[in-house]
């Protein structure tokens, strides 16, 4: 009794001292973020105002109506009056009218600068030649030297011949022959150059140099003309509040999207039961009315011929009858797995019932376990094949439709919001090189899509500001932000929930150690550290394997299996034109391999130099800490020894600040080095950037821990706290971890938000009067901070470094997983708040995994085997009586045992569930049969020709005569 009484008192005191600060910090940060977004006086047409108008106009459903919220169009009708009042006289492109039935007003937005005064400093930048060079990508130096027109394909804004228009606004018919001679190419380039010169003269009024303002207007108008005439899309332009920007909205109708989907083989999800009378009565009638009886019957006949019906009496065929309708009879295991994963037919109805999204299956623990090994129940979970879009009429009923509300009307559309954005962007990018336009300074950021007021309202209240870690609306996030961002939050949710297990184990370990020390009066950690270290090794290996399974499940659910990354050259890439040795396709290769090798060597030297700066800074800080901990030094300098502990803590804080500052500086250096290496694609650029930044930040973030754990006792002779290096390592880990949490979460949200508010304030101040010129809904979103690729990079990087904290030195402070768990609960909402409040709507990039980050996580898992083994053997006091030889031998054995356990976990847990592989193969077969015509039972194929029937058995002596009979 006395033992446990003393233990409880000591443990309670120590545990509360470590944990209370984190709990208070998390609570304060959350409430601060809540207060932060209670805005003051908003502009005349703020986002909140528009949402209130949209609620009244569109009768916004509750947040439970999830499916409706994701396919509904933005409530843009509420700002049409704003457009009318803000339309500028400089906008020479009127809003085109279309007879097509269009459900969305705006798919994309482009923001062009409208600067002034630049002609005074650089008059040669705003001339006719400058306009031609920008649009064609003409290289003036090389053209002058070779006495012919030389263009850079990565710098030309206008990509295709359709972009070159005559004075009537019609595209010029170029030489359609397959003549690839240099003379023919020069004739085409000369024609394009003359057309651009005429366009400049018509807009400016002469061929002389113009002002920067007129030049910016010329560029914006030229792009708008190509978007309308070459891309076939609708545009309209208006000036910003203080007239320093030209904002252009782009709209695509359904026919545009269908053509682009067919041209690019865009993959759309198939409807499992498009002809079922019980779940799809309204869909059946709607599709039949749109197609007509003849085409409708052709579709039914085709599906019946290729897939069949659930039974002989069924009136309508099904896409997958033996799994959907009769799965319990024909494929019981596969059907059971699909049901466990959360498949529901409810999402494929015309409209989801109001109470569908409110139903939750099982208690919190069941949903917690299900979310790790499978998927929790969600009415948007829908397993069906993904097939390339085909425009033929008979295939149209086979694709899944998405319900939307437009005013008081309920309809269905073939393309979800993310599909519309991708296809519209693809149409524009095929003709307009937006990257080159941005690199030249005539486009502010990339094209972006406007936020959907209803869907954003639902995401804010059901996700960003909903304080829970048990459920992430992954399907909502995917429909709105795309698979790449959805995968990040899926991984973050999975990582956070998996942290529960080491957090519980860490609490038990910490309590046991503190109780033991309270009773014995010593600092011995106990052999429980060994068990905890082995547990963390197994956990980290299991974490990687289970995430691969979860990733495979999401790939199958979202149709990402076999996804090929789009290959697009970076506009900054420099190379020479060549032809592919196999396909003869035109491509661009590196100018010089030797030059690229030199760039890589420079990168290695710079990274090494930066790591050297880290080592020097760390050495100086530890020398300072050693000097402070020497009481004689303090007395000689008239410093009271009672300040020794605060000064030591101050050095640790300075170390944390040094880590954050150098990380920030190095990110800029790494991007410069990446630019120097001249990478061809964005994916290649990002992968090399990830490797550079991780290598440096790994050294910068963990160098002090390696020094304290393995070097300090040898270099300085002792550690702090009566030569207890584990205690010093624990304090260093706790201090740096908390500072990283506070600074990271603050800068992620507060800084971008303050930039956004300052931009709005500056615009209103520069305008003549706020009553006359206020921000409309589109301009407000244009002022939001762009969510670029580096944002996702920073989010992953932050979590990966945290993963290192809880793996590499976890035995020094077993409560580290608990702190990481508390931080991640906050991190989910911080990242969600960034997306829903601070940033523009990101482009919905597709992605099938988390990329190179997964391999970095695996790398740190293996490094942790060695660090934790070394901590137990050399830094802790468990083996202080053993010789160095015994410790070294034990270290090798421990690492090998842990490595065997990690590999065993990898072998026991399959990467992809057996049912998922079967489902993927089944879906591939369905697509081949229904959409590609690879049907084995097709009677249209050629058969063997029948021979004349002869069943007579001839006697042996008549064998020769029978051969003549056959002849």
UniProtKB/TrEMBL annotation:
Localisation: Membrane
UniProt cross-references to Pfam families, sorted A to Z: Anoctamin
Signal peptide: none
GO CC, one annotated term: membrane
Transmembrane domains' residue ranges: 15-37, 485-513, 525-543, 599-623, 643-666, 687-710, 850-874, 886-905
Main subcellular localisation: membrane
Membrane topology summary: Multi-pass membrane protein
Name of the protein: Anoctamin transmembrane domain-containing protein
């Amino acid at each position: 009794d006395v033992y446990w009484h003393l233990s409880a008192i000591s443990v309670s005191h120590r545990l509360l001292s470590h944990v209370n600060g984190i709990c208070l910090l998390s609570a304060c940060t959350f409430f601060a973020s809540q207060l932060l977004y209670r805005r003051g006086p908003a502009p005349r047409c703020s986002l909140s105002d528009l949402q209130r108008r949209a609620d009244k106009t569109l009768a916004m459903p509750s947040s439970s109506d999830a499916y409706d919220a994701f396919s509904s169009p933005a409530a843009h009708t509420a700002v049409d009056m704003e457009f009318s009042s803000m339309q500028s006289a400089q906008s020479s492109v009127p809003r085109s009218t279309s007879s097509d039935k269009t459900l969305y007003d705006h798919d994309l937005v482009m923001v062009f600068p409208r600067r002034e005064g630049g002609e005074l400093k650089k008059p040669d930048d705003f001339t006719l030649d400058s306009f031609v060079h920008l649009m064609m990508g003409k290289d003036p130096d090389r053209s002058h030297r070779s006495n012919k027109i030389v263009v850079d394909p990565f710098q030309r804004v206008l990509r295709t011949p359709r972009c070159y228009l005559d004075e009537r606004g019609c595209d010029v018919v170029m030489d359609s022959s397959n003549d690839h001679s240099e003379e023919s190419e020069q004739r085409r380039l000369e024609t394009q150059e003359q057309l651009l010169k005429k366009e400049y003269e018509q807009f400016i009024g002469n061929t002389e140099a113009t002002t920067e303002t007129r030049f910016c207007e010329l560029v914006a108008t030229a792009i708008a003309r190509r978007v309308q005439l070459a891309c076939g899309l609708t545009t309209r332009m208006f000036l910003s509040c203080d007239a320093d920007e030209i904002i252009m909205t782009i709209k695509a109708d359904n026919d545009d999207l269908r053509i682009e989907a067919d041209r690019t083989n865009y993959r759309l999800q198939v409807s499992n039961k498009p002809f079922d009378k019980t779940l799809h009565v309204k869909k059946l009638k709607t599709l039949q009315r749109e197609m007509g009886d003849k085409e409708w019957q052709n579709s039914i006949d085709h599906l019946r011929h290729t897939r069949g019906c659930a039974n002989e009496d069924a009136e309508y065929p099904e896409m997958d009858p033996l799994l959907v309708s009769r799965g319990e009879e024909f494929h019981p295991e596969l059907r059971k797995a699909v049901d466990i994963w959360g498949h529901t037919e409810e999402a494929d109805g015309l409209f989801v019932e109001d109470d569908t999204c409110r139903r939750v299956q099982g208690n919190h623990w069941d949903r917690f376990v299900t979310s790790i090994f499978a998927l929790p129940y969600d009415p948007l979970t829908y397993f069906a094949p993904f097939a390339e879009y085909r425009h033929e009429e008979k295939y149209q009923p086979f694709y899944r439709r998405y319900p939307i509300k437009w005013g008081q009307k309920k309809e269905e559309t073939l393309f979800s919001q993310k599909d519309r954005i991708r296809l519209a962007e693809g149409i524009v990018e095929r003709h307009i090189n937006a990257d080159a336009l941005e690199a030249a300074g005539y486009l502010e950021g990339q094209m972006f899509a406007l936020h959907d007021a209803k869907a954003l309202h639902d995401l804010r209240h059901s996700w960003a500001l909903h304080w829970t870690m048990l459920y992430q609306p992954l399907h909502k996030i995917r429909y709105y932000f795309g698979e790449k961002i959805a995968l990040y939050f899926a991984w973050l949710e999975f990582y956070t929930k998996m942290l529960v297990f080491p957090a519980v184990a860490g609490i038990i370990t910490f309590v046991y150690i503190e109780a033991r020390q309270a009773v014995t009066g010593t600092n011995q950690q106990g052999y429980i550290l060994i068990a905890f270290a082995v547990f963390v090794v197994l956990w980290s290996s299991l974490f990687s394997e289970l995430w691969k399974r979860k990733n495979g499940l999401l790939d199958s659910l979202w149709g990402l299996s076999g996804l090929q990354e789009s290959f697009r050259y970076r506009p900054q890439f420099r190379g020479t034109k060549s032809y592919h040795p196999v396909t003869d396709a035109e491509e661009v290769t590196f100018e010089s391999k030797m030059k690229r090798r030199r760039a890589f060597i420079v990168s290695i030297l710079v990274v090494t130099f930066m790591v050297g700066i880290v080592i020097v800074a760390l050495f100086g800080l530890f020398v300072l800490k050693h000097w402070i901990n020497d009481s004689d030094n303090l007395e000689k300098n008239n410093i009271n020894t009672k300040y020794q502990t605060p000064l030591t803590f101050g050095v640790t804080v300075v170390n944390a600040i040094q880590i954050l500052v150098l990380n920030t500086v190095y990110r800029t250096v790494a991007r410069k080095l990446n630019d120097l290496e001249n990478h061809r694609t964005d994916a290649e650029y990002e992968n090399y950037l990830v490797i550079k930044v991780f290598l440096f930040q790994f050294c910068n973030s963990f160098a002090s821990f390696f020094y304290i754990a393995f070097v300090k006792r040898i270099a300085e002779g002792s550690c702090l706290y009566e030569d207890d290096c584990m205690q010093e390592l624990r304090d260093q880990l706790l201090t740096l971890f908390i500072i990283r949490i506070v600074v990271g979460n603050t800068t992620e949200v507060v800084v971008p938000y303050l930039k956004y508010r300052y931009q709005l304030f500056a615009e209103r101040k520069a305008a003549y009067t706020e009553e006359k010129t206020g921000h409309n809904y589109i301009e407000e979103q244009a002022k939001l901070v762009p969510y670029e690729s580096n944002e996702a990079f920073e989010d992953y990087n932050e979590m990966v470094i945290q993963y290192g904290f809880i793996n590499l030195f976890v035995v020094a402070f077993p409560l580290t997983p608990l702190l990481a768990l508390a931080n991640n609960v906050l991190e989910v909402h911080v990242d969600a708040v960034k997306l829903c409040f601070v940033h523009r709507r990101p482009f919905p990039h597709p992605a099938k995994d988390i990329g190179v980050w997964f391999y970095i996580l695996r790398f740190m898992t293996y490094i942790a085997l060695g660090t934790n083994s070394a901590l137990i053997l050399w830094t802790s006091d468990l083996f202080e009586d053993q010789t160095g030889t015994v410790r070294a031998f034990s270290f090798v054995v421990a690492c090998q045992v842990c490595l065997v356990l990690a590999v065993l976990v990898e072998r026991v847990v399959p990467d992809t569930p057996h049912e998922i592989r079967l489902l993927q193969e089944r879906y591939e077969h369905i697509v081949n049969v229904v959409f590609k015509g690879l049907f084995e039972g097709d009677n249209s194929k050629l058969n063997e020709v029948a021979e004349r029937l002869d069943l007579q058995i001839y006697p042996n002596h008549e064998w020769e005569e029978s051969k003549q009979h056959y002849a």
